[in-house]
Description:
Elements: H1 2-32, H2 39-57, H3 61-84, H4 92-114, E1 130-132, E2 135-137, H5 139-161, H6 163-173, H7 175-180, H8 185-211, H9 220-231, H10 236-256, H11 258-261, H12 265-280
Antiparallel strand pairs: 1-2
Helix pairs in contact: 1-5, 1-6, 1-8, 1-9, 1-10, 2-3, 2-4, 2-8, 3-8, 5-6, 5-8, 6-8, 9-10, 9-12, 10-12
Subcellular location: Cell membrane
Pfam families: BPD_transp_2 (PF02653)
Organism: Lysinibacillus contaminans
Amino acid sequence: MVFFSQMLINGIVVGSIYGLVALGFVLIYRASGALNMANGEFVIIGPYVCLVLITAYDIPFFIALLITLVFSAILGLVVERLVVRPLQNAPVISVIMATIGLSSLLAGAVHMIWGHQTRVFPPIFPPTPVQIGGVIITPVYLWSFIVVIALLILFSLFFKFSKMGIAMRAVADDRTAASSMGISVKYVYAATWTIAAVVAAIGGVLLGNINGVSPSMAAIGLTVLPVVILGGLDSVFGAIVGGFIIGICQNLAGGYLDPLVGGGLKDVVPFIIVLLILMVKPHGLFGSRGIERV
Length: 294
């Protein structure tokens, strides 16, 4: 039972980070109808920048994090302006292919600049673990969970009540109608890519504090894709719920099933879950079902 609780807690923490990263997928899909296949590279660039600021320039973590978020926001704006905006009226597949090319470009830049080795953040959180009923929770897991939950609540309120959040939802529902009401679609697109890059960087920094930073972290882009599909491509709430489901199932599979099959099943479980769910609910758990008149 202690082992199960440990795997469950780890899955909840990792799943919350999955949900945060999946939020970037959902925002871009709602705005443009396309998937950002470079989201995994957005995740790894943030922690590398933050780590360099801390280790090479002796900048305190929270200031380094703030600079990293500003850098990520600028990166999102540059990508939107140079890559996405010229394809605004192009077919969706063109945008997806452009982000695949961007993914390769950013991955190559990461390898050239920072190499292939795993780098570790200096101790930022208190080293003393918290023990609850025999279950040991390291502070980095605890604080990561608290930060992610706070951010998810903040973003939910932002989308529901802020002027920009309402504009983003209007563009997602009907771009033409939103434009006719005076909403700048280009401005909303820029804000969407900025927020997506920022949340990816936050998720990357949290994961970097847990597992270290390496180019292999970009694989989270593929891991989070089942999260988005499971919850529903256009559902913010679905991204959060899907993150928890995938995170918990993945960690339980890694703890119980991987030793039986020799490993590797943990990475496959998210895709198995998505296939099973899509057989029953093709639009995901909370995705909108489109209605077409023919």
